[in-house]
Amino acid sequence: MAGGKEVGGTQLKRVEYLEAELGHLNDRMENEGHQIQQQADSIASMQMKMDQKFEEVLRALSRGRSFRQTCVFHDDIPKNNSGGSKPVVSGSSYSSGSSDGGGRPPGGKYGGGTN
Prior knowledge:
It is a single chain. By secondary structure, this protein is mostly helical. The chain has a domain at 2-73. It contains two helices and no strands. The protein has helices at residues 2-62, 67-70.
């Protein structure tokens, strides 16, 4: 019966070891969960600030103010030296002097070319 006690003691030590390891893993998972929650909160806060800034810019544009006056990072916006004309949109095919009467998209009613 001495062999049975030895095997039982070894198994008990193994179970205790596994319980301790499981506790460590659980602690790490909890810690990582808290970190993820903090990061999610930070992202949500940044999103809210971005939304607020976007709303400010939209309000300023609707009042006719220059976008450059409302933008925090205005140094990144290229300067328009053409005296206040509207910005050119890349890929735009609209023009006021076209042969089809101007101001309409090319290609017929839906602007998609031939159907």
